[in-house]
Design goal:
Elements (H helix, E strand, L loop, with lengths): L2 E4 L9 H10 L4 E7 L11 H8 L5 E7 L7 H7 L3 E5 L6 H10 L3 E6 L17 E5 L13 H12 L8 E5 L7 H6 L4 E4 L1 H4 L3 H12 L2
Parallel strand pairs: 1-8, 2-3, 3-4, 4-5, 5-6, 6-7, 7-8
The structure holds D-xylitol-5-phosphate (DX5) and zinc ion.
C-alpha cells in the first residue's frame, strides 16, 4: 500500500488547525514534518513545540524529517513532541549506528535519508536496522523545487538491494513530487510519497484525493 505524506512546510501557518482537518477528512494518514536548523540546511523551519501543538489536533502518524546536525541530541525532545518516526540524514551524523540505536531505544521508528549527491550504496549496511529509507529528490532546505531525476536511479538501486529480512521497509521520496510525475517514482519503487506544494497549493482536499487515486492504482 502506498502512503501520501503531505509536507506541512507548505501549510498555511495561520490556519494549521483548519488545514489539518481538511487533510484528515480527505484521508491523509501521515504528516511529513520538516525540521531545519539553519546549519545542515540553509533554512530554519520549526521544532518540537510546533510539532507538539499539531499533535494536539490530529491522530495522524508523524513522519518527522530531521534536517539538522547531530540529531542524536534531540531524539527525546521529538519523542516528547509526539513524533512516530524520526528520519535522520546520513550526512548529518558523526555516529550513525549509535543514532539509529538511540531512536530505536526511544521506541520510535527510524528513517535514513540521503541527499541527491550522496551515493545510495552508503545505506546498505543500515538496511536491516531502519524502517524507512528517504531518497531526497531535491537539495533539502526548501519546498517548491524541481524534481531531480537522480532519485529514480536511487529508487531502482533500492529495489534490487533491499534486505530480504526487512521486506516491509518504507521507501520514501521527497522533493518536487506532483500529480504529473508521481507515477514515475511509484514505478521506481517508492511507497511513501512526500508532497508539499503539490498538496497545499490550490484546493487541498482535491489535491489529496487526486494523489490518493494515483497511489491506490
Ligand atoms: C525539502 C523538504 C521537503 C519539502 C517538499 O527540504 O524536505 O519535504 O517540503 O516540498 P515540495 O513537495 O514542494 O518539493
Ligand atoms: Zn522533507
Amino acid at each position: 500500500m502506498n502512503i501520501l505524506a503531505p509536507s506541512l512546510l507548505s501549510i498555511d501557518f495561520n490556519n494549521i488547525e483548519r488545514d489539518a482537518k481538511i487533510l484528515d477528512k480527505a484521508g491523509v494518514k501521515w504528516y511529513h514534518l520538516d525540521v531545519m536548523d539553519g546549519m545542515f540546511v540553509p533554512n530554519i523551519s520549526f521544532g518540537p513545540p510546533v510539532i507538539k501543538a499539531i499533535r494536539g489536533i490530529t491522530e495522524a502518524f508523524f513522519d518527522v524529517h530531521l534536517m539538522i546536525e547531530e540529531p542524536v541530541r534531540y531524539i527525546e525532545a521529538f519523542k516528547e513532541a509526539g513524533a512516530d518516526l524520526l528520519t535522520i540524514h546520513y550526512e548529518a551524523c558523526e555516529n550513525l549506528s549509535e543514532t539509529i540505536s538511540k531512536i530505536k531505544e526511544a521506541g520510535l521508528k527510524t528513517g535514513l535519508a540521503v541527499n541527491p549527491k550522496t551515493d545510495i550504496a552508503v545505506v546498505k549496511p543500515y538496511l536491516p536496522e531502519v524502517d524507512m529509507v528517504l531518497v531526497m529528490s531535491v537539495e533539502p532546505g526548501f519546498g517548491g523545487q524541481k524534481f531531480m531525476p537522480v532519485a529514480i536511479d536511487k529508487l531502482n538501486w533500492l529495489k534490487y538491494n533491499l534486505n530480504p529480512d526487512n521486506p516491509n521497509i518504507y521507501i520514501e521520496v521527497d522533493g518536487g513530487i506532483n500529480l504529473n510525475n508521481v507515477d514515475t517514482v511509484l514505478d521506481a519503487g517508492a511507497n511513501v510519497i512526500v508532497a508539499g506544494s503539490a498538496c497545499f497549493n490550490g484546493d487541498i482536499a482535491d489535491n489529496v484525493t487526486r494523489f490518493n487515486e494515483i497511489l491506490s492504482r
